[in-house]
Structures are given as structure tokens and as C-alpha cells.
Design a protein that fits this description.
Length: 137
């Protein structure tokens, strides 16, 4: 994979200027990496929205069963699903009107990333929000 979906200006903008992050795959299991990433961004002032079939309340935020169920706008959709499921989540993010999708480390679907970019979304793929945040000091 190239760095086609790791533009530092896009990463900086998403981390600094976005307000609401929907985390697809975020359930109430604190041992999962998605939980750590959501907690980190929440502590950095982002509103997090858990998206999980169980629609659990996580980190004090109401969960939703799907992106389509979330009231209001979502700036960034974090795709914390297996790579083979990422394309479906990206398509749902496009349909829901998200402004960006972030596919974390080892979640790689270049075709889905291109669909999102072609639909006007910012795309980050195979990058960790915590690592990228640390790079910015």
C-alpha cells in the first residue's frame, strides 16, 4: 500500500478541526483497541458516538445500531471492523453524509477508500489516531 490515504494535511485537519467521531465497532469492552482510541479522542474534546449492533452506552455516550440511526451530523467515521467488512461501513458512511472516514492500522480496503474519496469524503487509511495525535505534540 502507498501513502495515498495518509495525507498529513488531512490527518491534521481531522484531528484538529473535527467535532464528532462515530466509532463503528465500539461496544462496552474496554479491552478492545477501538475503546482506547475512542476514549483518547473523547479526552481530547471530541464527541464520540458508539456504533454497534447492541447500541450500548459507551464512555457515557448513547450508542446506535447503525450509522443511519445517528441523529445529527458526523464528521469522521472510524471503521473499527475487519478489513473485509470495511467497504460496507464506508458505503454506509457515504450514505449517512459523513465528512470523512478513518480506517485504522491493518484495516485496508483501497477500493472502498477510493469510493469515499470520489464521493467527496476525506480518507485516512492504515493509520492510528493515537500515534498521529502524538506526532503533533
Amino acid at each position: 500500500m502507498t501513502d495515498e490515504f495518509a495525507d498529513q494535511d488531512v490527518i491534521r485537519r481531522l484531528l484538529n478541526e473535527s467535532g464528532t467521531w462515530a466509532f463503528v465497532g465500539l461496544g462496552d469492552n474496554p479491552d478492545r483497541e477501538v475503546h482506547n482510541q475512542a476514549r483518547l479522542l473523547q479526552r481530547r474534546g471530541k464527541r464520540i458516538v458508539p456504533v454497534h449492533p447492541a447500541a450500548e452506552t459507551v464512555l457515557g455516550e448513547q450508542g446506535y445500531a447503525s450509522l443511519a440511526d445517528i441523529p445529527g451530523k458526523v464528521d469522521v467515521v472510524g471503521v473499527y471492523r475487519r478489513a473485509e467488512q470495511a467497504g460496507q461501513v464506508v458505503d454506509e458512511a457515504i450514505a449517512a453524509g459523513a465528512k470523512a472516514v478513518w480506517l485504522p492500522l491493518r484495516v485496508i480496503d483501497e477500493a472502498a477508500a477510493r469510493r469515499a474519496r470520489d464521493a467527496g469524503l476525506d480518507v485516512v487509511m492504515d493509520r492510528c489516531p493515537a500515534v498521529e495525535w502524538a506526532r503533533r505534540g
